[in-house]
Amino acid sequence: MTKYLNHLSIKHRGKPIPYGGDGVLRDDGDANYGFRYVKGDEAALRAIPELTRDPALLDLVLAVNAKETGLFSVGCVSGPVDDERGHRDSGYIEFAINSKSAISDATSYFPLFFHFDRFLYEAKFSAPVSFNWELEGATFLECGSASGFTCAIIINTDYSATREEATHIWSESLGALAYFLQSVPPERADFLYLQ
Predict the structure, then answer these.
(1) Which of 3, 60, 69, 173 is 20 to 30 A from 41 (CA-CA)?
(2) 82 forms bridges with which residues in the sheet?
(3) Which pTM does this prediction carry?
(4) Percent share of the chain, pLDDT over 70
């Protein structure tokens, strides 16, 4: 029986990229450090504060930003949730297709969503987790103000009885996503950022 959920939605807002971040801790204990283009720069990726505490998220962001992919990361965060109901993990990875023409059409992201869904089904993936692919408008100011869409995948595991089990499900879920996204090749040469 399938336990995962995989769905696609559209957020009707927009944002400029790069966006700033001051690194000041919020009430939830997290901070926004802003956008940094780090594709292919493993040292810079490993220095991102959000990634130092979550090895599974680090592996996912490394996969998205591998030189061979046609993607780059826009943002990410994750954190454990431990309360009276049990233990779970929550977070997201936001990325863009590295092509001015591809990002201008929101439907460019649908094949990725569809093939990830097929990948999960064919692999008989059954972790209790939801993947919400959320498209949002964005303008890339450093790239001639190219406008289009980014895609955030919001990942939420179901509650588990132990922190260890929750961490295992989180790692398994992000591992599947990393395996899939690292296989997305560049398809067009009109790069937002040079490869």
Answers:
(1) 173
(2) 87
(3) 0.92
(4) 90
